[in-house]
């Protein structure tokens, strides 16, 4: 933010009572994003299954164990290569595999091993599922197994596609129409589409509604991050912005808890969606951010929000919009290096991230880091059922560890060394033997892994691209210090 924004928070408080109420109300709904992102872990799980039986069963054989019903066999099931032998009331003996069944031509003795002739049939009578752990999932609901297994595997990719599209669309809409309107729409959409998922009538309607749910969930998470950041001063901004994702992790823990308690997928989905209802009922009370109002030249509305903030924070003389505008204008004049007024008022878009090679390189680098981190995290989280042990405890601990990392390490690194050391440390791509120090009096070493250094240290405490680079020179065995990008020089940092 511009220095004028910090003057506002110096006047009203960086994290007063007003900001605390707005912050915790907004990030509470971020919990629902974590809920819906990971809901498919238990909703789309595939239990053990075999082909359906063309008749009534009189006896069941699994290796040396003989039972009266197939339900008693599931506790002995150990591999997808296993099959079950059943005798029907009419005397026929069938071998039931997962994706086929075979009828024995000679039906004399009920034995597990059989060397005679068999007639192989498809699973035209449906499938029998193990319901000892999950009473119902979307896989068992619409038989998404065997030749329809690929449909089950498309459930999460289509959801993540919705996440991608929603982030792009709603991020742009929030800049045009305001943060508050997008927060209203996306939070209500999460509740409506979340409930609607539970009442879908077939696989295709399920995927479509989940896609829409993904769009609004992603849109809310992106806009809420910006929303709370614009209400919090610099003294609390690092902690507040990073812990938005802590509530996302709480949502993951809620998924594990609800999945343990509810084993029917549509009831499970309803309970997860109801968790977002309190925010939907009160989100209409949230105000628009004063900085978006100022950017749209709605000065009276911005002053009203500032007055409300002052009243809640018990500030007798709130900052005036005219003061903010004058400070901002002074900053623009002092920072202008020959550009005219029209260039300083230029509207920016996503293409500006590729306006030159240096910015494009950093943009692509950040995107690749997010891709790598998200890929590893979601693969690990979505596979919690297959990790061994208790699948509910696995997912719960994944969410808990996410919070632990943010609280214990993440915000401290971010606060002291800016965003780049934080990203690089957590993605394990920090340049080897690279020492980074930021533009104020503190200096910190960052662990390194790869040789070479072309590194930028950006901190909100700097408010400008000031950075000092210190890289180990292997030839001379000393630290080379390179101070770049002094204020308003217009130089680019490599």
Q: How would you describe this protein?
A:
The protein has 494 residues and is of the alpha+beta class. The protein is built from 19 helices and twelve strands. The protein has helices at 3-12, 17-38, 40-43, 138-142, 149-153, 155-177, 179-198, 203-229, 234-242, 244-261, 265-274, 277-282, 290-295, 299-312, 321-335, 341-344, 357-382, 391-417, 419-427, and strands at residues 49-51, 57-62, 65-67, 84-88, 93-96, 101-104, 118-121, 127-129, 434-437, 444-445, 467-473, 478-484. It has a six-stranded antiparallel beta sheet, with no helix packed on it. It has a four-stranded antiparallel beta sheet with strand order 10-9-11-12, with no helix packed on it. Helix 6 runs antiparallel to helix 7 (179-198), helix 7 (179-198) packs antiparallel against helix 11 (265-274) and helix 17 packs across helix 19. The protein starts with a helix and ends in a 10-residue tail after the last strand.
* Strands in their spatial order, largest beta sheet: 3-2-4-5-6-7
Radius of gyration: 29 Å
The overall strand count is: 12
Mean model confidence by pLDDT: 75
- Uncertain regions spanning at least 5 consecutive residues: 418-494
Number of helices: 19
Helical residues, percent: 40-55%
CA-CA gap between termini: 23 Å
Q: What percent of residues are in strands?
A: 5-15%
Instruction: Look at the helices and sheets and give the structural class.
Output: alpha+beta
Shape, principal axes of CA atoms: elongated
Mind summarizing the main beta sheet?
Answer: 6 strands, antiparallel
């Amino acid at each position: 933010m511009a220095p004028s924004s910090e003057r506002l928070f110096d006047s009203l408080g960086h994290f007063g009572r007003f900001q605390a109420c707005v912050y915790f109300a907004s990030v509470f709904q971020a919990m629902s994003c974590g809920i819906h992102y990971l809901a498919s872990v238990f909703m789309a799980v595939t239990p053990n299954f075999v082909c359906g039986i063309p008749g009534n069963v009189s006896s069941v054989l699994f290796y040396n164990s003989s039972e009266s019903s197939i339900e008693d066999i599931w506790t002995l099931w150990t591999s997808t290569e296993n099959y079950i032998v059943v005798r029907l009331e009419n005397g026929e003996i069938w071998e039931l595999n997962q994706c086929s069944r075979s009828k024995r031509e000679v039906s004399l003795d009920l034995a597990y091993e059989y060397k005679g002739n068999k007639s192989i049939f498809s699973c035209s009578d449906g499938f029998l599922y193990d319901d000892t752990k999950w009473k119902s999932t979307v896989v068992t609901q619409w038989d998404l197994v065997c030749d329809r297994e690929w449909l089950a595997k498309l459930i999460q990719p289509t959801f993540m596609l919705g996440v991608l599209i929603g982030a792009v669309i709603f991020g742009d809409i929030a800049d045009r129409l305001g943060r508050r309107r997008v927060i209203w729409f996306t939070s209500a959409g999460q509740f409506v589409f979340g409930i609607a998922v539970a009442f879908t009538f077939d696989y295709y309607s399920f995927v479509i509604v989940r896609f829409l749910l993904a769009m609004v969930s992603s849109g809310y998470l992106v806009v809420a991050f910006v929303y709370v950041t614009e209400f919090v001063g610099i003294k609390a901004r690092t902690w507040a912005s990073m812990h938005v994702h802590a509530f996302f992790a709480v949502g993951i823990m809620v998924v594990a808890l609800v999945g343990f308690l509810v084993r029917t997928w549509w009831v499970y989905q309803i309970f997860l969606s109801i968790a977002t209802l309190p925010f939907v009922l009160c989100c209409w009370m949230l105000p628009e951010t004063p900085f978006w109002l100022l950017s749209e030249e709605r000065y009276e509305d911005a002053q009203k929000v500032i007055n409300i903030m002052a009243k809640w924070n018990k500030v007798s003389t709130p900052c005036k919009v005219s003061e903010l505008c004058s400070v901002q204008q002074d900053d623009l004049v002092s920072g202008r290096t020959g550009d005219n007024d029209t260039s300083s008022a230029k509207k920016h878009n996503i293409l500006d991230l590729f306006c030159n090679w240096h910015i494009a390189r950093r943009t692509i680098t950040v995107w690749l880091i997010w891709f790598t981190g998200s890929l590893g995290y979601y693969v690990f989280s979505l596979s919690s059922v297959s990790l061994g042990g208790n699948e509910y405890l696995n997912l719960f601990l994944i969410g808990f560890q996410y919070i632990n990392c943010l609280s214990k390490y993440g915000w401290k690194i971010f606060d002291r060394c800016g965003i780049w050391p934080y990203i690089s440390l957590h993605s394990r791509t920090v340049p080897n033997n690279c020492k980074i120090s930021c533009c104020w009096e503190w200096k910190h070493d960052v662990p390194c892994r790869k040789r070479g250094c072309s590194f930028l240290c950006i901190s909100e405490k700097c408010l400008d691209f000031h950075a000092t680079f210190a890289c180990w020179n292997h030839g001379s065995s000393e630290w080379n210090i390179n101070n770049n990008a002094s204020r308003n020089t217009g130089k680019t940092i490599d």
